[in-house]
């Protein structure tokens, strides 16, 4: 198996250099109102900073419109953000010209939600998987053919059976496997998965999640895993970032963040998940948070969550909270964070959340 | 472990007396012909729903869950051949003429679909769309209909209903649009509401709001609800009864606490096992089953789940019937999972 050089230098225990470091990324889009007049600016991503370390999976959760996908696209410079710094494998992507960016992007690949939409319907599976290899002029034609077979095997598709098929002859799960084979063809270091399993049925979703997990250990892949499903993100992530209206509300180790969320928004998200624990058969009735997400065209002053927050006070309207480290590696942007689980209030969190 | 004993469980899953069913479906079959080949979408489905109760119909894409409910309302294309029976309060719905069916739709049975953006008319103010729905079902003047429409928008807790009345669908968020769809569905005061993946496209927070709203309206109005979903967690949280479909058949059918207390059909067990859980450590592999749902043009002989099932043997070449093996608990399997211990079953009663 190919081992990329970042793994040989990066040790898990020591604070290794991040594979990807984003600092103060801002992405805004002007919108036109009726008649073509300038209507305002969508604050899609506002000053987001995060790191992905070698070998780790960083999950990103948030509601529709929280800027998860825009953040992912900003990271790969499609389109390039308004401002901020994005360093990938030590290279500042923001300053790169197109040709250099193509070279840097080789190790930074993406898997999208819609498996049909991301594959050319007229191409055969083998051609689809060979495309990135041809694009980067990898090896000879016969070497590429061998590599395509190897890649299809890796994602669990028999090359002799599926190689000559076209996307419409495949199921959604199989299409997503082809998209994954394309993404890992060039031995990337980081895979950005934007709702990559969200459109799949639960049994197929589990197969693809296990595939991601296997590729992580076999190829030493790191992931930025974006999904709206909190349980799904927990399943794959070492750390989780919670986005709200273009900002990071909270980021921390997955276990700690889910067991003891410090931001009221994270707690509200967790409380609204329906579900049951198959081990005990216990059923959880979700608690719905009140209110609607505010418009990214005109986000509230101060804390952007304050209009929906049960803990909001005057200060939240006046002063924008910054991410503060409330526990090791666990940062929360809230003036009035929830108590840690050691207190009498916090223990409740652990009991009711399966 | 007792289920009804935990305070988080819905209170109404207790063994309350169940009223007479409002809808009784018997041996429903739907067959399409695509490119000259018959597609067996629904293959002998039977269930019943009582007023004030919620039945969750669970299944993957292509399991026939949506097709079966559309068949009840005569919403399938001409090429569909529907047989079997669906008695709604004494009236047979299958084979009902278009005119008679039109009177039933909305007034007796209403449906809320997954995509509220495509279910609403984009060129019409939402107020007018609800007013129209009100006037189809009740002989009232425009003014009274408008008042009723605002009332409905208030009932589904649309923020600022008087202002929203004059807005177009694109001005509303997904959650607000789905509230409007529910308002339209309730305009005819239906006795049965079919919610087809009604919250699937919404955020968890909005989903919780909409489900809470539906549960509250159901209690107040005594509506029977058929909830079609792929989400077992959602069913566990909100349904009284759960029916699991595979390849157009019911493979397990029981009151929710019974089913989730002791899953017996291997397919249901596989579905449950594949759901990511909040309390599982990161990076644990999910228990998966191989293969894909069967081709509905060429169903395997015997149990449709047989090719993917670890317990399958020769006996499974004969199709197992959906039989009531335990009080209230039906499953279609020759080799059921051990389920919980019998202690679980006893403890619950």
Could you give the topology of this structure?
The complex is a heterodimer of chains A (354) and B (349).
Chain A: H1 5-9, E1 20-32, E2 38-52, E3 57-61, H2 68-75, E4 83-88, E5 91-92, H3 98-105, E6 108-111, H4 125-135, H5 141-154, H6 159-162, H7 172-184, E7 190-194, H8 202-219, E8 222-226, H9 230-236, E9 239-244, E10 247-253, H10 254-259, H11 264-271, E11 275-277, E12 282-284, H12 314-318, E13 324-327, E14 330-332, H13 346-352
Parallel strand pairs in A: 3-8, 3-9, 6-7, 7-8
Antiparallel strand pairs in A: 1-2, 1-4, 4-5, 9-10, 10-14, 11-12, 13-14
Helix pairs in contact in A: 4-5, 4-7, 5-7
Chain B: E1 23-34, E2 37-49, E3 54-58, H1 65-72, E4 81-88, E5 91-92, H2 98-104, E6 109-112, H3 116-119, H4 126-137, H5 142-155, H6 161-164, H7 174-186, E7 192-196, H8 204-221, E8 224-229, H9 232-238, E9 241-246, E10 249-255, H10 256-261, H11 266-274, E11 323-326, E12 329-331, H12 342-348
Parallel strand pairs in B: 3-8, 3-9, 6-7, 7-8
Antiparallel strand pairs in B: 1-2, 1-4, 4-5, 9-10, 10-12, 11-12
Helix pairs in contact in B: 4-5, 4-7, 5-7, 7-8
């Amino acid at each position: 198996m190919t081992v990329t050089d970042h793994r040989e230098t990066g040790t898990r225990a020591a604070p290794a250099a991040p594979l990807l470091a984003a600092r103060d990324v801002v992405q805004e889009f002007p919108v036109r109102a009726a008649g073509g007049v300038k209507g305002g600016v969508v604050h899609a991503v506002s000053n987001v900073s995060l790191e992905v370390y070698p070998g780790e999976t960083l999950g990103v959760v948030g509601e529709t419109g929280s800027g998860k996908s825009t953040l992912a696209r900003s990271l790969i410079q499609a389109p390039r953000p308004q401002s901020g710094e994005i360093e990938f494998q030590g290279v500042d992507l923001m300053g790169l010209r197109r040709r250099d960016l193509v070279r840097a992007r080789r190790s930074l690949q993406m898997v999208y939600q819609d498996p049909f939409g991301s594959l050319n319907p007229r191409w055969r599976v083998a051609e689809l998987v060979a495309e990135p290899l041809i694009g980067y002029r990898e090896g000879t034609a016969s070497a590429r053919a061998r590599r395509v077979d190897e890649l299809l095997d890796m994602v669990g598709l028999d090359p002799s059976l599926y190689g000559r098929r076209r996307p419409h002859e495949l199921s959604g799960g199989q299409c997503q496997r082809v998209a994954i084979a394309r993404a890992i063809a060039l031995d990337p270091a980081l895979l950005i998965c934007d709702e990559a399993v969200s459109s799949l049925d639960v049994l197929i979703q589990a197969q693809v999640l296990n595939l991601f997990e296997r590729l992580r250990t076999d190829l030493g892949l790191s992931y930025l895993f974006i999904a709206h499903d909190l349980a799904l993100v927990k399943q794959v992530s070492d750390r989780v970032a919670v986005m709200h209206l273009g900002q990071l509300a909270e980021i921390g180790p997955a276990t700690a963040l889910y067991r003891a969320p410090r931001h009221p928004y994270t707690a509200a998200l967790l409380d609204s998940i329906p579900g049951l624990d198959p081990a005990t058969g216990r059923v959880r009735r979700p608690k719905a948070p009140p209110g609607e997400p505010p418009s990214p065209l005109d986000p509230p002053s101060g804390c952007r969550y304050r209009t929906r927050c049960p803990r909001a006070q005057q200060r939240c309207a006046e002063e924008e909270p910054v991410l503060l480290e409330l526990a090791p590696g666990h940062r929360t942007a809230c003036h009035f964070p929830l108590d840690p689980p050691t207190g009498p209030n916090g223990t409740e969190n652990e009991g009711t959340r399966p | 472990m007792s289920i009804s004993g935990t305070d988080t469980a819905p209170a109404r899953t207790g063994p309350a007396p169940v009223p007479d069913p409002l809808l009784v479906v018997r041996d429903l079959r739907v067959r399409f012909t695509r490119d000259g080949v018959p597609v067996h979408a629904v293959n002998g489905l039977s269930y019943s729903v009582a007023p004030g109760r919620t039945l969750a119909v669970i299944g993957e894409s292509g399991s026939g869950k949506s097709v079966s409910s559309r068949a009840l309302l005569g919403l399938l294309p001409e090429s569909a051949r529907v047989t079997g029976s669906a008695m709604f309060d004494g009236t047979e719905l299958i084979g009902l003429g278009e005119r008679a069916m039109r009177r039933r739709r909305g007034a007796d049975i209403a449906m809320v679909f997954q995509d509220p953006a495509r279910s609403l008319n984009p060129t019409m103010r939402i107020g007018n769309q609800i007013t129209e729905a009100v006037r189809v079902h009740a002989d009232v003047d425009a003014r009274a209909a408008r008042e009723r429409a605002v009332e409905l928008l208030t009932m589904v807790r649309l923020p600022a209903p008087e202002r929203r009345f004059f807005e177009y669908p694109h001005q509303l968020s997904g959650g607000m649009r789905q509230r409007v769809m529910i308002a339209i569905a309730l305009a005819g005061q239906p006795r049965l509401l079919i919610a087809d993946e009604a919250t699937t496209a919404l955020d968890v927070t909005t989903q919780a709001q909409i489900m809470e709203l539906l549960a509250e309206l159901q209690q107040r109005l005594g509506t029977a609800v058929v909830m079609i979903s792929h989400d077992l967690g959602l069913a566990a949280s909100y349904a009284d009864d759960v029916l699991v479909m595979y390849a157009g058949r019911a493979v397990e059918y029981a009151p929710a606490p019974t089913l989730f207390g002791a899953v017996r059909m291997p397919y249901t067990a596989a579905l449950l096992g594949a759901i990511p859980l909040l309390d599982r450590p990161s990076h644990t592999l999910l228990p998966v089953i191989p293969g894909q749902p069967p081709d509905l043009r060429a169903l395997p002989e015997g149990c449709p789940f047989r090719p993917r099932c670890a317990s399958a043997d020769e006996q499974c070449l004969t199709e197992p019937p959906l039989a009531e093996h335990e009080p209230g608990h039906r499953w279609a399997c020759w080799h059921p999972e051990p389920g919980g211990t019998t202690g679980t079953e006893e403890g619950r009663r």
